[in-house]
TrEMBL record:
InterPro entries: GIY-YIG_endonuc, P-loop_NTPase, SLFN_3-like_DNA/RNA_helicase. Residues 213-577 form the Schlafen group 3-like DNA/RNA helicase domain. It holds the Pfam family GIY-YIG. Transmembrane segments: none annotated. Residues 47-117 form the GIY-YIG domain. This is Uncharacterized protein.
Length: 589
């Protein structure tokens, strides 16, 4: 009838799993009549609950908190006749109900537990839909210091009942969906910027004279652009619903295949796709399918540094940002010019500054400054900045936070170290990545190659480039991989990633191979386009005045920065250039 998950001692959470219907709820009440302490905690204290039901092999969930679980659940059943409402599934899908209590629960603590559960559900592959609308993260309260421990005990007990619905915490935290979730609690910096953006957007939408505005957010790698982006994007839809804005149109644009997949899954899980249709797109299809005469309300551009600034294949324009601004009443961009990687994305300083100036004049220019990806000391972050921005190598600091920078003599040693990290559950998202200094073509057939795979080859050591081993998988594995980022796919531990698969994503440990294009001469790091196979970075670019110019050194420098800022817990390095390798080994002493 229902399952009591053993409470134990030391103020363990009390969790009941019952069938989600009125009869089971009545039986649950009756069961508690002879359990005085549990009855008080579950029926008189605030509690958290989870409605869940299966749709095929997938789950749909609703997470809530209440001061009266019996009354609240009955309300859900009273409203379940509306077929447009998630509550209708309570009559038709044989759902389960988890009731979660704890002796220390108060309103604030249950709200935070509810928020964390929703955020975890976002990162679970088996959960296809979360029916809550928004979270309500709390600030300081008593006993907020107990929250993490209590949540871990709750999750541990839930996992015992259904490991598919409640997988290991480390699996969830490493998922790209979890990291990009709009349900994260924002830092004060992020929250202030988000609130100001939303205020400015709806002020512009309500005033014809304020339309056509550009909101510009600068932020380097790891400063929380993606979370700010997804949170603001989702919150705008909720705000539009509150203000009863009919036919609200807000489109999230990103010119990155892997990120598109992540945002599409978020839109589906939160019900945006079901209610509003296609809300995520790449820039070129958006431009081709929207006219200047009928602009949408808001165009939200993540990774705006990846926008094209000249024509290419299906895009026949000259500047994607200009074309998008013309097709939206308000345009919001997240930008990091240190992550521009190709000549088609290169911005002439004067043109880029004009856009920033336009945003400045309207009070619409914001900056993210706090490093959030790399869990390292300021000294370690400064070392990475010195290497990737200032072309210098200083002594590698000893990091008291536990972040590791290691230098390797051979690529095989780097591979062994990364695989050892990846074998541990808490570091399984550890991968090797490299500069684009070995030949690769996504379009060429096997017959046109000298070897079976496009490979990174260093002496006798070699490994396939990213996306090569996927061709060897069966249909089931390929289908599963479609919803996963490159680094989340199990076979990629035997591949080498590139900026094209890893940009915008985190790794636990990044094993970076600096190829022949990165050298060390006369005390300075050299970025050599002649050694690169990235034609998109090394070919000449035609400027607005008609002249042609090469930007290969700068773009390879950006490539190295992207690679060296992926690791959350550590950076492992192998350098092909002997002088660079010796300089790094000396710096590590």
């Amino acid at each position: 009838m229902f399952l009591n998950i053993y409470r134990g001692e030391n103020l363990e959470p009390i969790i009941y799993k019952i069938k989600d219907n009125i009869q089971s709820l009545q039986d649950f009440q009756k069961h508690l009549e002879n359990k005085h302490s549990e009855r008080i905690i579950l029926l008189d204290y605030p509690i958290v609950y989870i409605h869940n039901w299966k749709k095929g092999e997938s789950y749909e969930v609703y997470v809530g908190e209440t001061n009266n679980v019996v009354q609240r659940t009955k309300q859900h059943f009273d409203q379940s006749g509306d077929k447009q409402n998630w509550r209708s599934h309570l009559r038709t899908k044989s759902p389960d109900l988890y009731i979660i209590g704890h002796e220390h629960f108060n309103k604030s603590l249950t709200l935070d537990i509810e928020n964390r559960l929703m955020m975890y559900m976002m990162g679970i592959d088996a959960v296809k839909r979360i029916h809550n609308k928004r979270t309500n993260p709390q600030n300081r309260y008593f006993p907020d210091f107990e929250m993490n421990h209590i949540f871990q005990r709750i999750w541990y007990k839930l996992r015992k009942t259904d490991p598919d619905l409640f997988p290991n915490e480390s699996v969830i935290k490493d998922s790209a969906l979890f990291k990009a979730s709009p349900l994260h609690k924002l830092t004060q910096e992020q929250e202030d910027i988000r609130d100001r953006i939303i205020e400015k957007v709806f002020s512009a939408l309500n005033d014809q004279n304020k339309r056509g505005q550009l909101i510009f957010i600068d932020g380097e790698a790891g400063t929380g652009k993606t979370v700010l982006n997804s949170s603001t994007f989702y919150e705008m839809y909720l705000k539009a619903e509150e203000q009863k804005i009919e036919n609200f149109q807000c489109c999230l644009l990103v010119n990155h295949e892997e990120q598109i997949t992540v945002y599409e899954q978020i839109a589906e899980k939160l019900g945006l796709k079901n209610k509003y249709g296609k809300v995520v797109s790449k820039p070129t299809p958006f431009i081709n399918h929207h006219s200047i005469d009928q602009p949408i309300d808001v165009a939200f551009i993540d990774e705006a540094h990846l926008l094209l600034t000249q024509g290419k294949q299906s895009y026949q324009g000259k500047n994607q940002l200009k074309d998008i601004i013309e097709r939206a009443k308000v345009t919001i961009v997240m930008f990091d010019e240190n992550q521009i990687l190709t000549t088609e994305q290169y911005w002439e300083a004067e043109i880029l500054n004009d856009y920033r100036k336009s945003a400045d004049e309207n009070g619409n220019h914001f900056k993210l400054t706090k490093q959030m990806r790399i869990t390292a000391s300021d000294e370690t972050i400064s070392w990475i900045d010195g290497f990737t921005k200032e072309k210098r190598i200083s002594k590698i600091p000893t990091d008291t936070t536990g972040y590791e920078i290691k230098v390797f003599e051979q690529p095989a040693e780097l591979e062994t170290a990364i695989k050892e990290k990846s074998a541990k559950e808490e570091h399984k998202l550890s991968r090797m990545i490299a500069t684009y200094d070995w030949e690769y073509s996504q379009n060429s057939s096997v017959e046109k190659r000298m070897q079976k795979y496009w490979e990174v080859i260093i002496g006798e050591w070699k490994k396939p480039w990213n996306r090569e081993l996927n061709k060897e998988l069966g249909k089931k594995e390929k289908r599963k991989n479609r919803s996963l980022a490159w680094a989340e796919q199990s076979q990629t531990i035997d591949e080498i990633g590139s900026t094209f698969t890893i940009q915008g994503f985190d790794l636990n440990y990044a094993g970076v191979i600096l190829g022949p294009s990165v050298k060390y001469r006369n005390g300075e790091i050299i970025f050599d386009p002649n050694e690169s196979h990235n034609l998109k970075a090394t070919r000449k670019r035609t400027l607005s005045n008609g002249t042609k110019k090469e930007f290969g050194e700068t773009l390879i420098q950006h490539e190295v920065r992207v690679l060296m800022t992926r690791g959350v817990n550590g950076l492992y390095i192998y350098a092909c250039d002997k002088e660079l390798r010796e300089a790094l080994k000396e710096a590590a002493k």
